[in-house]
Amino acid sequence: MIIHIKKCTLEDSHELQEISHETFHETFKHQNSPENMNAYLERAFNLKQLKKELTNPSSQFFFVYFNNEVAGYLKINTDNAQSEEMGNESLEIERIYIRNKFQKHGLGKYLLNKALEVAMERNKKIIWLGVWEKNENAIAFYKKMGFVQTGAHSFYMGDEEQMDFIMTKTLI
């Protein structure tokens, strides 16, 4: 098994859109209406939006490859790209998405470690993320990786307000 990471560029926008739709749909389709799923997918993952995020110097995307196939990706934010005001000493993990067929191979941990590496390179003191309160597998994973719940915020799936737990990890 060969695993490697590549930083995404504008040239990756179509592939990023495809994997974003696929992984988000696989993960959340059973708990949300088709209308709300479609509204969110169109708003969050349209090409214009993804290109805007890819060119934001405070955001970075990384593809993870498993045996030379794109298996998932990581999106991290610093400074004003963070989805919550957490200060300049924080780095946000906005997305760790792994395609279903590549789950249970340690790729989420691999991407999380990449985020930690970037945070330490940039002298960040806190790494944080928002995770849906009903995503029990992800919550368990983040707790295992040393994150603790420190708050919550609203997340809109179409017109439905949902609750995300804010989980943080202090870096030494």
What does this structure look like?
The structure is a single chain. By secondary structure, the chain is of the alpha+beta class. The chain has one domain (3-170): Gcn5-related N-acetyltransferase (GNAT) (Aminopeptidase), CATH 3.40.630. It is 34% helix and 35% strand. The chain is built from 5 helices and 7 strands; from the N terminus they run E-H-H-H-E-E-E-H-E-H-E-E. Strands 1-2-3-4-5-7-6 form a 7-stranded mixed β-sheet, with helices on both faces. Helix 1 packs across helix 3 (47-54). It starts with a strand and ends with a strand.
> What does the average pLDDT come to?
95
Strand content: 25-35%
What is the H/E string? Answer: EHHHEEEHEHEE
What's the end-to-end separation, in Å?
32 Å
* Poorly predicted runs: none
* Biggest sheet: strand arrangement: 1-2-3-4-5-7-6
Cα-atom radius of gyration: 15 Å
Give the helix tally: 5
Count of beta strands: 7
- Class inferred from helices and paired strands: alpha+beta
What would CATH call the architecture? 3-Layer(aba) Sandwich
Main pleated sheet: 7 strands, mixed
Reported by name, the CATH topology is Aminopeptidase
Can you tell me the overall shape?
A: globular
The CATH class is identified as Alpha Beta
The CATH fourth-level homologous superfamily:
Gcn5-related N-acetyltransferase (GNAT)
Query: How many domains would you count in the coordinates?
Result: 1
Task: Summarize the amount of helix as a percent range.
Answer: 25-40%
